[in-house]
Design goal:
Layout lengths: L1 H6 L2 H11 L5 E4 L3 E4 L11 H4 L19 H18 L1 E2 L5 E4 L8 E4 L1 H11 L3 E4 L8 E2 L8 E4 L13 E5 L7 E5 L5 H6 L2 H10 L1 H10 L7 E3 H12 L5 H8 L7 E3 H6 L1 E3 L11 E6 L2 E6 L7 E3 L2
Parallel strand pairs: 2-6, 3-5, 6-8
Antiparallel strand pairs: 1-2, 4-5, 7-8, 9-10, 11-12, 13-16, 14-15
Helix pairs in contact: 8-9
């Protein structure tokens, strides 16, 4: 509020508040994934269709702090409490739930545990809950660990200009587990690479077989994954391009929750598609990536590239 008043005025702030009151409090994806800001209601028996009945446009932090004496006021109090829980609550590792004042400055937001989330998901036949409301270092976090169920997803990298956290977004396939794509908003080397990605894609395609063989050597258990540090080393050694691979990694691939990279999926994103006239074997193409030039020699065909997500 203070920032809005300083940069604009009270009228603009009031307009923001009026618009926000009409924004949805949650989204359902494919009838199985719930997306919201903070968390779930304290009443685990609350059904998703109950959320449609709450008067979203009447939400006001300064009102309905007590149940009141009438049936109408008690109903409004319950509706506002549901909205506040959804907008401002946080997960914690202990079972059950307890009141929490973070986020909205209200004593009736909650911290909710894995058992509470499980009950809510079973009641509403959900497979996953995606929420934000917490700045996490990697841009995403599974607060309940191996239990899964709920993931924190935070898209604002380097939050407030000082947090030095990664931002992240998810790709959710119709079948299979979600992928996480991390990024950092800086004026660093990764930004320079982003403007030259086509050249880097071309180098990856040219050395795709060598990369696959080297990754397989580091994966004796045939898990199709390698550690992020091994991925960085292989990219450096095989492509012979001096880059900070850790910083540009989010531009090229996704990271698994256990901080590994599925190198099969990574390499399958980069394909040759179509050809043009043949070229002499001695022709070389130079790909400039963030000031580093890699000579790609002995190519028979021009390579048309795309990265499939």
């Amino acid at each position: 509020m203070k920032e809005c008043h300083v940069k604009y005025d009270a009228e603009v702030y009031a307009m923001f508040c009026a618009v926000f009151k009409w924004l949805p409090i949650g989204t359902i994806l494919d009838k199985r994934i719930l997306v919201l800001h903070g968390g779930i209601p304290r009443d685990a028996t609350t059904k998703l269709h109950d959320l449609l009945a709450v008067p979203r446009q009447l939400y006001d932090l300064s009102m309905y702090r007590t149940k009141g004496d009438t049936k109408a006021s008690r109903k409004m109090y319950k509706s506002m409490r549901i909205i506040k829980d959804i907008l401002w609550s946080d997960p914690h590792t202990a079972n059950g739930w307890k009141e929490n004042s973070r986020g909205a400055g209200m004593s009736f937001c909650i911290n909710y545990g894995p058992d509470h989330v499980y009950k809510y998901m079973v009641k509403n036949r959900l497979e996953l809950i995606i929420r934000s409301h917490e700045c996490v270092p990697n841009g995403f976090d599974w607060p309940f660990g191996a239990k899964g169920m709920l993931v924190t997803l935070f898209s604002a990298s380097n939050y407030c200009g000082v947090a030095n956290n990664m931002g992240c977004f998810m790709r959710i396939p119709q079948n299979g587990k979600p992928s996480f794509f991390q990024y950092m908003a800086t004026t660093s080397e990764s930004d320079l690479v982003a403007t030259n990605l086509e050249g880097l894609f071309e180098v990856i395609v040219t050395h795709r077989d060598e990369l696959r063989r080297r990754f397989q050597e580091l994966d004796p258990g045939d898990t199709h994954t390698v550690t992020t540090s091994d991925w960085d080393d292989v990219m450096q050694q095989q492509l012979q391009i001096q880059l900070n691979w850790a910083s540009i990694r989010p531009l090229l691939t996704s990271i698994e929750p256990n901080q590994t990279i599925d190198y099969v999926n990574f390499l399958d994103r980069y394909h040759t598609r179509g050809t043009t006239a043949s070229q002499d074997d001695d022709d070389a193409a130079a790909s400039t990536v963030a000031g580093a030039t890699a000579a790609v020699s002995r190519r028979r065909h021009h390579v048309v590239l795309y990265a499939s997500l």
